[in-house]
Write a structure and sequence with these properties.
The protein is mainly alpha-helical. It contains eight helices and two strands; from the N terminus they run αααβαβαααα.
């Protein structure tokens, strides 16, 4: 287990080689189901990476995940798609089929929209950092107004990776 626990991916699962984004024009982001309830108003590090790397994306996730992104104010690139409402198709097979068609269409047509796509990815990048700064303000409030020690705040917010979730099995198992 420790061989796995010491890998870069386990230490920081959001780590990805930035050259991947330099060598591609769009990402298809797969967001999985919510195993703990029926609320799909969330996204994971997979989508935040797109914003950080200024990359347009096609979301292969649940319809509420796209609604959530739009509610937060992010650009979601539907206007560049052959099937603009693809993300809201309830039937999963049909939705994923639309993702494939949209990916092909985007690859064929993105250069004709390059200026507006560049503005959209810049908007997402800036909005991401606006939200990050809001979170910093909340953490400062926890410390200064609520008296939560910086050590406690750091413990819960500064952890990366899954190492703390992996268990070393006894040798006899």
């Amino acid at each position: 287990w420790m061989d796995v626990a010491e890998t870069e991916w386990v230490k920081s699962p959001t780590l990805i080689d930035s050259s991947v984004y330099n060598n591609t024009v769009v990402s298809v982001v797969s967001e999985g189901p919510n195993y703990w309830g029926n609320n799909y108003s969330f996204v994971t590090e997979k989508i935040w990476r797109e914003f950080l790397h200024k990359q347009p994306f096609i979301l292969a996730g649940w319809p509420d995940q796209m609604r959530y992104l739009k509610k937060l104010g992010y650009k979601t690139f539907e206007e560049y798609m052959l099937i603009p409402d693809y993300a809201y198709i309830e039937d999963e097979q049909q939705r994923l089929g639309a993702v494939v068609k949209n990916t092909q269409h985007f690859l064929e047509t993105h250069t004709s929209h390059s200026k507006s796509i560049a503005l959209d990815v810049e908007h997402n990048y800036n909005l991401l950092f606006d939200y990050i700064n809001e979170q910093k303000d909340i953490l400062i409030h926890f410390n200064t107004k609520l008296g939560i020690s910086q050590e406690q705040i750091d413990f819960y917010t500064a952890q990366t990776g899954y190492k703390n979730l992996l268990m070393r099995l006894p040798n006899d198992i």
